Amino acid sequence: MSDTSQPRLALTDLSKTYDGSTPVLDGISLTVGAGEFFSIVGPSGAGKTTLLRCLTGLMRPTDGQVTLDGIPLSEPSPKMSLVFQEYTRSLMPWASIGKNVALPLRARGVPRAERTSRVAKVLAEVGLSGVEAKYPWQLSGGMQQRVAIARALVTEPEVLVMDEPFASVDAQTRMDLEDLTRRLQQDHRMTIVLVTHDIDEAVYLSDQIAVLSKNPARLVEVVDVPLGAERDQIHTREMSTFADLRGRILRTIRDVQTQPV
Amino acid sequence: MSLRSRVALGLVVPVAIVVSYALWSANAASPYFPPLDVILTRFRELWLFDLVSSDVLPSLKNLGLGLLLAVIAGIPCGAILGRIRWMGEMFGPLLDFWRSVPPIMLIPPLVLILGIEDSAKVTIIAVGSFFPVCVATADGMRQADPTLVDAARAMRLGPLKTMVDIYLRAGSPAILGGIQIGLQAAFVLMVASEMLAAYRGIGYLTMQAQVTFDSVTMWAGTLLLALLGFTANAVFVAIRNRVLSWHTGMRVSRASS
Ligand SMILES: Nc1ncnc2c1ncn2[C@@H]1O[C@H](COP(=O)(O)OP(=O)(O)OP(=O)(O)O)[C@@H](O)[C@H]1O
Ligand SMILES: [Mg+2]
Fold first, then answer.
1. Would you write out chain B's pLDDT as a tens digit for each of its 257 residues?
2. Per the database record, which ranges form the ABC transporter domain (chain A) (predicted)?
């Protein structure tokens, strides 16, 4: 990424205080380059979801601003898609998978025939061909998560934002979904912003990792992950760079947490 | 339990009541409780199908039209009261007041103002069943999951589509419950308004029979009203279960996981 290119996403001095409480986010500035896999890690309750809500335009920050391709963002952008932490609850239980995945296309007035073919294509991509007629509650948690990802991808977003997307699935499904996400990012040249509290996952997937502190959340450091474009669940995790980065981030988080407030 | 055994079990008590009445009334010689076969004969003479087009269908038409108007007006009004905070605050007390008043109270003033024509009956039924639909829809607006609402915002679903595709669908169990209460109110109002102020209709004929001590016709009318009420509710429940199959399915899958 050359320094002259404009960042895809830029956060400048972002702060958020919910009504009548102490600040949750305090002066967070960071930039995400186009095509980058960017992770945000931080302890539980640090304000990661709050940060994502601000950077997707779902919520106004108290202070600071977010720009997408240089343009200030004040409401959700059609270039961005979001996968929610509570993905099960983000799906419509009264609608079939086909209708759920087609919803963002309906929002854009895409004609029915095109909706159907794009839904089929994106479901195939996440490995869920032919489930269109099923209902979300007829699928396993991991499958529902794929549906949520498919719904986010169906609009071919430039930026995909994911909030702890793999937190509540079993280890094997989790690895599958990690690799799926990484592959989709490469195939579509998407920019991905991923929130997680799993440091290993962040290191495995990312090009850059932002570490947040808690109470309030401040940006502690941004770590580069020089592990290359090709990642493998076994080999990558065995590399010494992987272990070094993992150790370094864990140590940073521990140091921040033990510091007196 | 299988469907067939449930139906069989459910039929035991009604059949027992009918059979006991038939046996007892056959030689009771009471002017108030005529023998069952006499009532059934009158039932057939009146309702199969001599008076159907003059007295039964108009009543049912008033019922259907009134309820339809109530639904058409009640859902948007409830949606507005449920979604727009200050509107809810402003009209909330009125709806609470209405909840605690029996709907037949509507009949005297509306008859005085509108008369006893069909249009007056439709109005009475529509007003009476409007409130349950409206209240239930306003409550139903709270059923949409905030995460799903956020998802809709993130995908820039417009306000109208969000209302139709998210809020109304999420609220549909509550709304259909409100329509069911509305149907019951509509039925009561249909019968009561005919009993109190009409020149035709099942309620009118039944009431006239009572006033003239024609107990056979009175029972035949009562029986028809009971059957109509039961059938209307059963049809409604069948439609509701179909529309809400996702809701049942979801609850079953949550309970078993
Ligand atoms: N709508 C809200 N109103 C008031 N306070 C809130 C609201 N949402 C979140 N908070 C508070 O802000 C803080 C950060 O919450 P947030 O959900 O952003 O954390 P998180 O890092 O996503 O946590 P987790 O890892 O558990 O998902 C918490 O203390 C939470 O109680
Ligand atoms: Mg969170």
1. 788 999 899 899 989 999 998 888 888 778 888 888 888 988 888 888 777 888 888 899 999 999 999 999 999 999 999 999 999 899 989 888 887 888 888 888 888 888 888 888 899 999 999 999 999 999 999 999 999 999 999 999 999 999 999 999 999 999 999 999 999 999 999 999 888 877 888 888 888 888 888 888 889 889 999 999 999 999 999 999 999 999 988 888 877 76
2. 9-239
Least Cα separation, residue A104 to chain B (angstroms): 5
What is the predicted ipTM? Answer: 0.89
**Which residue in B has a C-alpha nearest to residue A91's C-alpha?**
B148
Indicate which atom in ligand 1 lies nearest the CA of residue A18. 4
Least CB–CB distance from A92: residue in B161, B169, B249: B169
Nearest Cα residue to atom 4 of ligand 1? A18
CA trace torsion A40, A43, A48, A49 (10° rounding):
130
Protein residue closest via CA to atom 29 of ligand 1: A45
In chain B, the domains with their CATH numbers are 51-251 (1.10.3720.10)
Q: What is the pTM of this model?
A: 0.88
Sorted by where each starts, the structural domains of chain A and their CATH numbers stand as 1-79+193-261 (3.40.50.300)
Any idea what DSSP says for residue A239? S
Q: What angle, 0 to 180 degrees and rounded to 10, lies between the N-to-C axes of helices B57-83 and B172-196?
A: 140
Mutate to test the pocket of ligand 1, among A24, A58, A87, A197 (most ligand atoms within 8 A of CB): A24
Mutate to test the interface with A, among B143, B149, B150 (most CBs of A within 10 A): B150
- CA distances to A53, B47, B97, B125 from B142, rounded to whole Å, are 22, 45, 21, 27
Q: What is the C-alpha to C-alpha distance for residues A149 and A188, in angstroms, rounded to an integer?
A: 14
In angstroms, the CA A235 to CA B69 distance is 68
* Cα atoms in the 13 Å half-sphere on the side-chain side of B248: 6
